[in-house]
Amino acid sequence: MDERTQAMRERWTRQADGYDRGARAQRLLLGGLRKRLCGPARGRILEVAVGTGQNLEYYADGADVTGVDLTPAMLDRARERAAALGLRTRLVEGDAQHLPFGDGEFDTVVCGLALCTIPDQRRALDEMRRVLMPGGSLRLADHVEYTRWPLRGREARKERPRRRPVEVAAEAGFTVDRVRRSAFGLLDEVTAHRP
User: Fold this and answer.
1) Which one of 31, 112, 113, 158 has the largest count of C-beta atoms within 10 Å of its C-beta?
2) pTM of the entire structure?
3) At residue 10, does pLDDT exceed 80?
4) Is the bond preceding 134 in cis, omega lying within 30 degrees of 0?
């Protein structure tokens, strides 16, 4: 694990206990985002950066969901949430930049509100593409406020600047099917597939 990824892991470990406190306010801002992101997911589903499992309740009944997260403390909260919901969900510790799964193992990959925190967005999307079967679906939603002026200038000076998810997904070889702006233009919702 590189230094930036380790720092991110430590940050999320510190925030794990209180992470869900802002969930109510987040629901107001996000509206139906989680349902739009997760509801259509089908087949063997991988949720990258599952965190505390806030998306779990939005998958279809009987969905076959595997969640991966960098932070054991976040996974502990996700396990509690899955148990409370009565879901059989496989939760695995792992780095989005080096997913611990085989090539073409999943039909759908979901990543919601997390790509902006992954040190190497492109590497993470390359990995998501690798673990998707050909024709598999990518369902992605992320913050894009850093792509606007004046934040864009500050972001551009970073070693690995964050970019709009739709751009990075296309560079990683996905065919973008749909892009939608939501949350007052602060989020991109991307539906794409692996050719």
Assistant:
1) 112
2) 0.88
3) yes
4) no
